[in-house]
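README, section 4: Worked example with a bound small molecule

Sections 1 through 3 covered apo chains. Here we extend the same pipeline to holo records, where the ligand is supplied as SMILES alongside the sequence. The molecule in this example is pyridoxal-5'-phosphate. Nothing else about the input changes; the structure line simply encodes the ligand pose together with the chain.
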Amino acid sequence: MKVPFLDLGAAYEELAPELDAAYREVMGSGRFLFGEQLAAFEAEYAAYSGARDCAGVGSGFDALALGLRALGVEPGDEVLVPSHTSVMTWLAVAAIGAVPVGVEVSETTYLIDPERLEAARTARTRAVIPVHLYGRPAEMAPILAWAREHGVLVLSDAAQAHGARLEGRPLGGLGDAVAWSFYPSKNLGAFADGGCLTSDDPDLVARVRRLRNYGFAEGQAADGVATELGVNSRLDELQSAFLRVRLRHLDEWNARRRATARFYLDALADLPIGLPPADDHCESAWHQFVIRVADRDGVRAALAEHGVETLIHYPLSPFAHPALRDRLAAPAAFPVAERLADEVLSLPVGPHLGEGRDRVVEAAGAALTLGAWRGRQT
Ligand SMILES: Cc1ncc(COP(=O)(O)O)c(C=O)c1O
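The generated complex, written as structure tokens:
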């Protein structure tokens, strides 16, 4: 039995009647951009994520970059980012000419460590991007308190956290703004690229609406009056309609992920690995189930021999990417992030895993017992 990391074909099949109907509706409407599907999705996602407003854009990357611009972050400004995250968080900062400044993550949560923010702050610090990595909410209360005290803007990266909750609250209205990705493999995924920005500040969202559409003032789109330097970054009608369908099923699919995560936490508890943190005040969306293993590559190969596909999020720390190396404010050491890059391994946790999870546990047991035996021989 093969266990794929994520089965996006099954994700389509389960909702095929609803998705096909949405497709026919949009195709028949003759309207493919800026129509009623986008407007309806924006309203529905704002409500779902607990924010006042939402603007759809072309990707999660654009949601971050346009969100930073809408907040007034300028070239040369410094933006604090976690040392361990997708490189895309750092790239979005660099894309607008700002400088990503790493803040070491916590060894237990793998998320930005609020205690380390102050040491990274300089006169040029304008914003911080907490990332809800792997679906687990960052510790927003101390981050927001620190940011308020020092006049630092807070844009969260929730690309992996649709449906996650902190102290029972959804994440979309926390801080100044929140960036989301609808990349197909996300918990709420489109069938192409997509993203959005949510916020409790309607003026900020209106600015993103202008920036995503060449800087055209809203209501004057037909006139094409560019009031600021915008880009073309649209969430189209088809993807909006598909996302509306999938949003209706998101909580149920997240519940399947949660059940698998609990199953793993229990079944893998005695193995010589690090398990992800799971506590009540942070309700993770379980976008990834990430274990830590000393012999990561050996265990990964052994799992593959048992037919279990795994991924690594991420094998190279953001600051080690050649494109970013020369753009960083100062060389800094991030030993926790470097250790994580060597040790993290993502197990399948998608909503269509089904009985595959038993196979994952069996294979992990076999791989790690063999690993321990190998360790004793050397
Ligand atoms: C943490 C994080 N930030 C940003 C992005 C960028 O999103 P997108 O692929 O939609 O541009 C992703 C994922 O793809 C991500 O996982």
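What to look for in the output: Residues 59-61, 85-86, 88-89, 131, 157, 159-160, 181, 183, 193, 195 surround pyridoxal-5'-phosphate (CB under 6 Å). The radius of gyration is 21 Å.

Section 5 describes how to batch many such records.
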